[in-house]
């Protein structure tokens, strides 16, 4: 940790200031991670803000992470790392934070990311094309943004099918309820459109980013797969894979990883993900591994070598940087761009400013929690966050939240309802999970043909 | 992403100048190689010198090959890319060049790389331990440098065996005679010590570095494997693998790649290999793939999961940067450091300043050349280079070269001898190569146990 106090900004070059800012950003992050005293954090944040003001005075530009002053003038990237600069929300695969107590402004995010809003017209169209009532996550704006969804539907109407790709970084044994959101929705998409699904568990990523052994990461993968399978996926339509296993089991997958790696420079991942020179080369190359499942010939056992089957990725919006990169590369290596459906992410119990983390025991309601733990967490924690998790999950009217906000619903009553709904829901998930044997996991995770003709 | 350069010629950035300088350096080299008119060469050199002066004015630094302006200031490494700066020889996996017409100074290289000279004492010891006369490449200083070879022999004397790892980047269909050097020597080591051998063909590397398709790189791999097999390797002791195939066939190999990738930063590969921000992420991560075969548990089918079998790598000295990195990482991930035996590399027909390249038709004597082509090349080209290739290969007395240099051997006589020795040697290689069927290649390249108990 560098101490930045006591320097005068006036004499400093833009690069000096840039480096001070970067280092101060690290300091703030470290203090937060280490749960330092609030006063210390506040002081560090204040210094950070002061440095940003100085920086703007000296350079005429906003400070952007990963973009030193000389480069910023021509940087055309509007990625999340860059955007975090001017007090905007910070949203990338490893950091979600906002200075706004109400949480991330998703409409602004759509503009910044250049995606499209899921409007009523699109929801109606999905209902028309599928002949099914749209899922509540679509109707309630949990999935709120998309890329190229109309194109997917155009093709589907002409009998050109597509496949689904989603995933998860297995950073701990236990999932929390927020983690189920993409899987619940993905299952609905799969059932509704009758299409294959691949689920990537990025145990290699977790090994690279966290202080975990390869063995732990792989064990979490198998445990997480059980929770995912417990959501009810059809074994005839679903392939779940660990990167650590599948990379070493599919030359076609690796070929696509190398193709992407050839077409993305360090400059680009620096701009998109904020990587720096002291990051390990594994992190730097990893985005290609998350990109590869977007291309159907990464799964020759499913798509019989076809490289042109359209991919649709339902994921939380913080994963979008990976797929912006993927969509940029795709046409250059002769593949269709994957389409996307973005969900909001689900705030932690500590507050709306960050997303839930599987790594912190008290930040979430976990799928392994006992009824008593659920009761305690809902009763004692900042349960307004819980609401945003639970309401979509249990299909209680969204208005309920507004009732509560307006005072029409009493706190005690709301807590009671939540506990009563959560306890059986999680208990029954735990029951289903118990049914998932090692053998079933193995079956889901074996590369094999699925019940589709492509 | 666009880069940061301005495009006005009058107002050149350091990076503009750097690129102009690099390109002008190439021009000068090409003119010299092609023996252009002296006036043309002089003019090109003068422009080069002028650009160097401009560069120093603008950046305050001396121009360094392979080291773009923004990075030079922070480069802390004394690796090959950096060392090329002050008129020293440039030796790294992609560039071998020297300003000295006699060729690279290998004694200086030993000092700079921090390796040890293969002295008479080591040669004698190898003879004692193996009970065999040392190979002529050892006796004549073709293999001239090592790391930890005494340690390998200490262990071998205590019945602790080791394995061999060598490799090749398949950049074209045809190998030249210089490419056989490491394989001829490796075969001798294998026969002498009766140990397993793994041969890595880095088709992924060639795809990342060259303007080649994945399919071409993989085809070259298979063709090159035939030439390697034709050297006479025992199928019961030898595993040859394509990265593009084996990475996708061995989860254990990929796990070691990720382990190395986690423990090497971009700063480090920048220092060691001269990578820059505009290099693709595949190049940046690749060194881990060349490192992984140094660890025995990358081949569980051979070593039954053991991670502690010592590795010995015979290779040309230009590959050393990869293995300095590997040796740095090894203890941090719980593996023994690989030992090394370094050979000189073999200069091109155009002159002693560069190494032979498989990509230029006239730079070498290829294993596919007809007797007539061999005759023409030896007769017409700068055959003093051929001597340094041929003499070790055919075991003609090394003194022969000194005779020639001293005038005792006439040019015509030397050419005649070379042609007479080369023609049957290459013809017989071609015969042996014809015997190598696709089936044999497949057998060598199938992951399988070898005839050893570990």
Label the overall shape of chain A. globular
Largest sheet of chain A: 7 strands, mixed
Distance between the termini of chain A: 55 Å
Provide a count of the helices of chain A. 23
Structural class of chain A: alpha/beta
Helix content of chain A: 40-55%
Oligomer: homodimer
CATH architecture of the domain at 95-348 and 436-445 in chain A: 3-Layer(aba) Sandwich
Determine the mean pLDDT of chain A: 81
CATH class of the domain at 95-348 and 436-445 in chain A: Alpha Beta
Approximate strand percentage of chain A:
5-15%
Major sheet of chain A: order of its strands? Answer: 3-4-9-8-5-6-7
Say which CATH homologous superfamily of the domain at 95-348 and 436-445 in chain A is assigned.
HUPs
The beta-strand count of chain A equals 11
């Amino acid at each position: 940790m560098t101490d930045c106090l006591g320097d005068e900004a006036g004499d400093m070059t833009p690069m000096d200031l840039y480096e001070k800012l970067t280092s101060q950003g690290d300091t703030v992050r470290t203090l937060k991670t280490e749960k330092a005293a609030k006063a210390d954090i506040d002081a560090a944040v204040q210094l950070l803000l002061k440095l940003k003001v100085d920086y703007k005075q000296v350079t005429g530009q906003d400070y952007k992470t990963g973009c030193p002053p000389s480069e910023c003038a021509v940087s055309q990237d509007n990625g999340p790392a860059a955007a975090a600069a001017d007090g905007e929300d910070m949203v990338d695969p490893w950091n979600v934070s906002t200075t706004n107590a109400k949480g991330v402004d998703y409409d602004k995010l759509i503009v910044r990311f250049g995606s499209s809003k899921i409007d009523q017209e699109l929801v109606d169209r999905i209902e028309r094309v599928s002949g099914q009532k749209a899922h509540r996550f679509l109707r309630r704006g949990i999935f709120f943004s998309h890329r190229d969804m109309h194109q997917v539907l155009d093709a589907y109407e002409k009998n050109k099918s597509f496949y689904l790709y989603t995933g998860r970084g297995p950073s701990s044994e236990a999932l929390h309820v927020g983690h189920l959101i993409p899987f619940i929705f993905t299952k609905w998409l799969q059932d509704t459109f009758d299409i294959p699904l691949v689920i990537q568990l990025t145990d290699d990523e977790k090994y690279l980013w966290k202080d975990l052994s390869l063995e732990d990461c792989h064990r979490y993968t198998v445990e997480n797969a059980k929770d995912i399978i417990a959501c009810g996926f059809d074994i005839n339509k679903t392939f779940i894979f660990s990167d650590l296993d599948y990379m070493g089991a599919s030359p076609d997958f690796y070929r696509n990883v190398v193709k992407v790696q050839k077409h993305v420079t360090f400059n680009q991942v620096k701009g998109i993900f904020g990587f720096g020179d002291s990051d390990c080369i594994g992190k730097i190359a990893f985005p290609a591994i998350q990109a590869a499942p977007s291309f159907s010939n990464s799964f020759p056992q499913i798509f019989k070598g076809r490289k042109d089957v359209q991919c649709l990725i339902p994921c939380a919006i913080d994963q979008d940087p990976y797929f912006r990169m993927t969509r940029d590369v795709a046409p250059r290596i002769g593949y269709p761009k994957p389409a996307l459906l973005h969900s909001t992410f689900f705030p932690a119990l500590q507050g709306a400013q960050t997303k839930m983390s599987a790594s912190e025991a008290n930040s979430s309601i976990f799928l392994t929690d006992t009824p008593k733990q659920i009761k305690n967490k809902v009763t004692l924690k900042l349960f307004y966050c819980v609401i945003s998790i639970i309401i979509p999950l249990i299909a209680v009217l969204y208005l309920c939240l507004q009732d509560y906000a307006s005072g029409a619903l009493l706190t005690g009553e709301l807590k009671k309802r939540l506990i009563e709904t959560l306890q059986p829901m999680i208990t029954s998930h735990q029951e289903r999970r118990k049914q998932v044997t090692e053998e079933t996991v193995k079956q889901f995770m074996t590369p094999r043909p699925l019940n589709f003709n492509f």
